[in-house]
C-alpha cells in the first residue's frame, strides 16, 4: 500500500503511478512480500502471473526459484526498473514484463500461480479491485493457486490517513471472487499481524489478510 503524499486526483491510473515511482530512484525494498514467501515457498515452480508487480521484488524471487513469471504493472517506470533488476540478478530470461491497466486489459493465458499482493489503489473506481480479482480466477490453471495479499487497515502509526480508503475484510475478499460451489477450495483465509517499526524507528505493527484459493 502506498501512502503517496499527493491527494488522488483525476489523472489517469498510469500517470498517477508513473509519477509515484518517478519521485524516488527506488520505492520498495526489492525484497519479496513476506505473505508470498510464506504461502509459495513450498509450491513446485511452474508458471506465475504477478499482478501489480511494481519494481519486481516478487517476480525476481519467484524467477530465482525456477518459476517462469509474467510480471504486470500499469507503470512503465516500475516495469523498466524491474527489468533492469532482473538483468542484474541474472533471471531476465525467466520474466516477461507486460504493461496493463488491469481495469482495461488483462494478460492472456493460464498460470500455476496468480499472485495479487497489495493490489490497492487510491485512484481505482469503486468495485474495480474486486472485478480484477474475479478476472484473475480465470487465469488460474487447473490445480493452480490464486494468492491475494491485502492490507486490513492502515499501519498503527498512521493516525491521519493520506486519503480515504476502505480496506476489505477477509470474508469480503473471498465473497467478491464469486467462486462456484464446485471446482475451487479456499485453503487459507486469515489475518496476519506484522511487527514493523514506525518511520522514526519506534514500535509499530500492521495487519494484513491473506487469501489462497485453489482450482481443483
TrEMBL record:
InterPro entries: Methyltransf_25 (IPR041698), SAM-dependent_MTases_sf (IPR029063). One of its GO terms (molecular function) is methyltransferase activity. Residues 203-216 have a biased composition (Basic and acidic residues). Keywords: Methyltransferase, S-adenosyl-L-methionine, Transferase, Ubiquinone. GO terms for biological process: methylation. Gene3D superfamilies: Vaccinia Virus protein VP39 (3.40.50.150). Residues 195-216 are annotated as: Disordered. Residues 49-144 form the Methyltransferase domain. SUPFAM superfamilies: S-adenosyl-L-methionine-dependent methyltransferases. This is Methylase involved in ubiquinone/menaquinone biosynthesis.
Amino acid at each position: 500500500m502506498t501512502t503517496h503524499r499527493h491527494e488522488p486526483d483525476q489523472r489517469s491510473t498510469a500517470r498517477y503511478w508513473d509519477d509515484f515511482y518517478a519521485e524516488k530512484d527506488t520505492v520498495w525494498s526489492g525484497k519479496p512480500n513476506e505473505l508470498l514467501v510464506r504461502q509459495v515457498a513450498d509450491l513446485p515452480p511452474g508458471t506465475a502471473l504477478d499482478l501489480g508487480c511494481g519494481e519486481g521484488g516478487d517476480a525476481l524471487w519467484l524467477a530465482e526459484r525456477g518459476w517462469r513469471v509474467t510480471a504486470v504493472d500499469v507503470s512503465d517506470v516500475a516495469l523498466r526498473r524491474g527489468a533492469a533488476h532482473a538483468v542484474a540478478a541474472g533471471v531476465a530470461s525467466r520474466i516477461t514484463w507486460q504493461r496493463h491497466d488491469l481495469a482495461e486489459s488483462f494478460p492472456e493465458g493460464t498460470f500455476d500461480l496468480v499472485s495479487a499482493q497489495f493490489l490497492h489503489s487510491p485512484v481505482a473506481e469503486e468495485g474495480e479491485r474486486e472485478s480484477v480479482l474475479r478476472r484473475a480466477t480465470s487465469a488460474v490453471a487447473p490445480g493452480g493457486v490464486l494468492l491475494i495479499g491485502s492490507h486490513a487497515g492502515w499501519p498503527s502509526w498512521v493516525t491521519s490517513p493520506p486519503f480515504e480508503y476502505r480496506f476489505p475484510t477477509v470474508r469480503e475478499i473471498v465473497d467478491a471472487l464469486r467462486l462456484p460451489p464446485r471446482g475451487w477450495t479456499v485453503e487459507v483465509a486469515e489475518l496476519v499481524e506484522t511487527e514493523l517499526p514506525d518511520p522514526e524507528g519506534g514500535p509499530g505493527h500492521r495487519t494484513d489478510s491473506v487469501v489462497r484459493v485453489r482450482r481443483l
